[in-house]
Amino acid sequence: MTNKISALILTDEFSTNEVLKLFLSEFENLELLEQTTDYNEIINKLSPNDKKFLFIVDLSTRKQDKLDLILQVSQQCKNCKTIALSDNPSVDLIIQIMRAGAREFVPVPIIKNELYEAINKTINQFEVPKVKNKCKIISVFSNKGGIGKTTLASNLALELSQITKENVALIDLNFQMGDITTFLDLKPSFNISYMLENIDKINETFLLSTLEKYKNSSLYVLADPPYFKQADNIQPKQISKLFNTLKDTFSYIIIDAEASFDGKNIAALDNSDMVLLVTVANLPALRNTQRCLELFERLGYDKDKVKIVVNRYMENDEIKEQDVEKVLSKPIFWKIPNNYFAIMSAINKGVPVSILNSSTNVAISYKNLAQHISDNLIRENMVKKFENILNNQ
Fold first, then answer.
1. Residue ranges per domain, the chain?
2. Cα separation, 276 vs 372, whole angstroms
């Protein structure tokens, strides 16, 4: 970058201020503004549109006032990026900080490497983004096994590749008991552990030659690790980095998420544009789905991000569609009909349902779901595009 970024520190602690000034002085592209504790003056300092600003705010004291200030800065200061600090971090506080508009969080006392990583990530957000494929990441999730999550993920991925004619990546994040390769009868030479070990070498050519291509489609599969110990070495940050790398090559990334809330899985869900929360119409499954929705709300997920998919749905079930919606206080996004024989036959033969028999009700449902998702995402992109045009007028 040719232009320097102006940095402003807000903290009530002298020692924290001195440490921050010392560390920031090592960045040649940062110039430190004179500190102030006047909130109106801070807004005025960070408002000019012809400059870029980095706002570092310590919430160790006056937490709510500073949360309100972060929100005000994010709304009024368009060229400002915020990093938040606190000596008493918690999941709830970090969620509040992110909701207010800060993009990075660093705990106090400050560790130099953690601060530098947060600053570098934030500075990179000022760079003019490359024109690239607008990839959408879709996680298929349930915290209860045996719901049909893997069947949905594999069939949806293939249908999206066939409908859109674009590259689709299907990732198996069931690190202990992944089944994607079994469902599609694949024996890949490489898996996600290999990919993460070589993350810095990855480009489009590497991806398209390393991921297992499914027959004559534009669907590419990234398998789970073959050994349990390999999964233990995978970190949440690596998952996020992998997705960011895949975005340049694929239009859609479908994730068969693990039925858990560990760090790796939450990293996948955080990075997803859409979460298909799969359930069936019985009370134990619906209670589990309620718990998932409550946790997603705590994580700060937008209500529109999480979509309810009822699998194995039958019109004559004792629990009706309206009962499900009432219990979950959320509309059903999609219903996949129950067709045990078609699904089991496809699984046992290692092929998607549409390849075995495209005229079955369940195959038609998967195809229509893929069409519905792709249409909706296109519509959302167009709405955002027009909103940006109107906002710039």
1. 5-124, 136-392
2. 13
Pairing of strands 252-256, 136-141: parallel
Q: Which CATH class is domain 5-124?
A: alpha beta
Q: Residue 181: what residue type?
A: T
Question: What's the DSSP call for residue 30?
Answer: E
**Residues with Cβ < 8 Å from 331, sequence gap 6 or more?**
308, 325
The two tokens of residue 228 are 């349990």
| Tokens 């046992």 sit on residue | 348
Q: Which pair of structure tokens corresponds to residue 49?
A: 């549109």
Question: What tens digit of pLDDT does each residue of 289-321 get?
Answer: 999 999 999 989 998 999 999 999 998 888 999
φ, ψ dihedrals at 246, nearest 5°: -65, -25
Q: What DSSP line would sit under 154-183, residue for residue?
A: HHHHHHHHHHH-S-EEEEE--TTT--HHHH
Specify whether the CB–CB gap between 252 and 170 falls below 8 A: no
The size of the chain, in residues, is 393
SS3 221: strand
Structure token pair of residue 298: 């705590």
How many angstroms separate the Cα of 260 from the Cα of each of 42, 118, 175, 248, 257?
42, 28, 11, 28, 8
- Under CATH, domain 136-392 is a member of which superfamily? P-loop containing nucleotide triphosphate hydrolases (3.40.50.300)
pLDDT digits (tens, 9 = 90+) for 370-385: 989 887 766 665 455 4
136-392 has the same fold as 5-124: yes
**Comparing C-alpha atoms, which of 113, 84, 139 is closest to residue 26?**
113
Tokens encoding 156 = 């949806």
Q: Residue 21's closest CA among 34, 12, 37?
A: 34
Cα(272)–Cα(307) distance, rounded to whole angstroms? 12
Q: What 3-state DSSP class applies to 216? A: coil
